[in-house]
């Protein structure tokens, strides 16, 4: 009889706890959708400050602005964490054309890849060879590539429903294409933009020369998908065409910058830290609204929503706006190094860096015990149409925190439109939906709340 009574009490306690969780999560969503602040913050970040390339004046303005907002929220502590960041500048707008016959040209939209060297002052004009990804270099060989511009034209696979899978399988040509092509004697590279639709927006992104000596480095640029289609079709008609491009980007000495951090101190376990964040830097072509202004304002909104609903955290909840995710990951690395140096105990970290679109769920990098705990929360998210709880990944900035005693997570928004905007002039505030942004912030706040309630499972 006593055993049955204990079982009954246990079940009753669990039901009561779940009811409390339902009420708190409902209050979070209601507050986000009726009194959200993130959209207004993003409006200022995007339209008054703009693109925030690491080391730029705009990046510093973003640091100042977001710290001011955090200061106004009544948090227990707000501070700046110094970070040394790379400084690459684009310079004057790039220019390119396809020359099908002497004097007969078609201009095409290009942009320099982040970290690329400039062309000579007068630009580069050379024959061009097309390859379908880095593996195509070996097929052509040095004899056909020497002295030419390599055109990497591997498109993102449209058959993957998760667009990030397609991105991952094509991004190597952007990142390492120049380092590989120069081994075959190429004088420059042009890379098809990582975009699932056909348009005239070239998409930039980080590239690396690896161990290529400075004097041997070749310029690298992205071409819009429409431009790539035209170049490919023209090459099929006449393999002897020339391609011209000019860019005057440069790498300057490292600059001083900051991670922006604010926290609410835990009432019961203040030494256990939960992090929520996004990256404050962006590329310079658009205003960085989806990548990753959205993630930053959503993360700030998480702390505001918890305070606005009257919730008092058991554990310390910290928002971190990381600097330099796009071309160096210095912010994430510095944060993890300082956390280790200070013997801080991080048990959970959540990042939003996949755009401000409708939230679909979360990805988790954790052990089976903690993933089982997460799966037990699925019913709490079902009323809000979140259904993806997948094991196997998080986001870049929180990656350096990884150890056996932390759960890392990433917000999964719908990915179908993300690469229309990613790293391009098309990443603007006009393409962010207020309600979708607010739903993402509420979803993140709800997950933070649950990890605060139930902690890390050993």
TrEMBL record:
Record-level Gene Ontology MF annotations: carboxypeptidase activity; metal ion binding; metallodipeptidase activity
Gene Ontology terms: cellular component: extracellular region; lysosome
GO biological process, one term: proteolysis
Keywords: Carboxypeptidase, Endoplasmic reticulum, Glycoprotein, Golgi apparatus, Hydrolase, Lysosome, Metal-binding, Metalloprotease, Protease, Secreted, Signal, Zinc, Zymogen
Main location (coarse class): endoplasmic reticulum
Listed InterPro entries: CPQ, Peptidase_M28
Domain of life: Bacteria
Quaternary state and interactors: Homodimer. The monomeric form is inactive while the homodimer is active.
Protein name: Carboxypeptidase Q
Gene source species: Arenibacter echinorum
Lineage, opening ranks: Bacteria, Pseudomonadati, Bacteroidota, Flavobacteriia, Flavobacteriales
């Amino acid at each position: 009889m006593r055993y049955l009574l204990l079982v009954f009490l246990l079940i009753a306690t669990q039901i009561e706890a779940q009811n409390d969780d339902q009420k708190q999560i409902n209050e979070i969503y209601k507050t986000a959708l009726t009194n959200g602040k993130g959209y207004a913050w993003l409006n200022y970040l995007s339209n008054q400050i703009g693109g925030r390339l690491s080391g730029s004046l705009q990046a510093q303005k973003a640091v100042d602005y977001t710290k001011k907002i955090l200061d106004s929220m009544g948090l227990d502590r707000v501070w700046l964490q110094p970070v040394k960041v790379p400084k690459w500048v684009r310079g004057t707008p790039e220019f390119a054309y396809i020359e099908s016959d002497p004097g007969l040209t078609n201009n095409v939209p290009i942009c320099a890849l982040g970290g690329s060297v400039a062309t000579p002052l007068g630009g580069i004009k050379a024959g061009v060879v097309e390859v379908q990804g880095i593996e195509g270099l070996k097929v052509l060989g040095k004899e056909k590539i020497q002295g030419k511009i390599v055109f990497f034209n591997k498109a993102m696979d449209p058959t993957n429903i998760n667009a990030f899978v397609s991105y991952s399988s094509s991004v190597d040509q952007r990142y390492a294409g120049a380092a590989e092509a120069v081994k075959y004697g190429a004088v420059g590279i042009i890379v098809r933009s990582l975009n699932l639709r056909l348009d005239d927006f070239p998409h930039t992104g980080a590239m690396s020369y690896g161990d290529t000596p400075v004097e041997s480095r070749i310029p690298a640029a992205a071409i819009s998908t429409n431009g790539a289609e035209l170049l490919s079709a023209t090459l099929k008609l006449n393999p002897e065409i020339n391609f011209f491009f000019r860019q005057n980007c440069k790498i300057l000495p490292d600059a001083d910058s900051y991670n922006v951090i604010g926290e609410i101190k835990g009432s019961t376990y203040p030494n256990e830290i939960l992090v929520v964040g996004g990256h404050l830097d962006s590329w310079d072509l658009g205003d960085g609204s989806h990548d990753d202004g959205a993630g930053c304002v959503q993360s700030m909104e998480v702390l505001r929503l918890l305070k606005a609903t009257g919730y008092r955290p058991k554990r310390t909840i910290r928002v971190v706006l990381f600097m330099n995710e796009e071309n160096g990951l210095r912010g994430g690395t510095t944060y993890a190094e300082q956390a280790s140096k200070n013997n801080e105990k991080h048990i959970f970290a959540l990042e939003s860096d996949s755009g401000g679109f409708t939230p679909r769920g979360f990805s988790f990098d954790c052990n089976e015990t903690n993933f089982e705990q997460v799966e037990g929360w699925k019913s709490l998210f079902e009323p809000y149409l979140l259904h993806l709880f997948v094991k196997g990944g998080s986001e870049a900035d929180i990656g350096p925190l990884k150890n056996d005693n932390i759960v890392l997570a990433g917000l999964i928004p719908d990915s179908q439109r993300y690469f229309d905007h990613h790293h391009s002039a098309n990443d603007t505030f006009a393409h962010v939906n207020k309600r979708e942004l607010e739903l993402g912030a509420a979803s993140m706040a709800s997950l933070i709340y649950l990890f605060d309630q139930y902690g890390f499972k050993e």
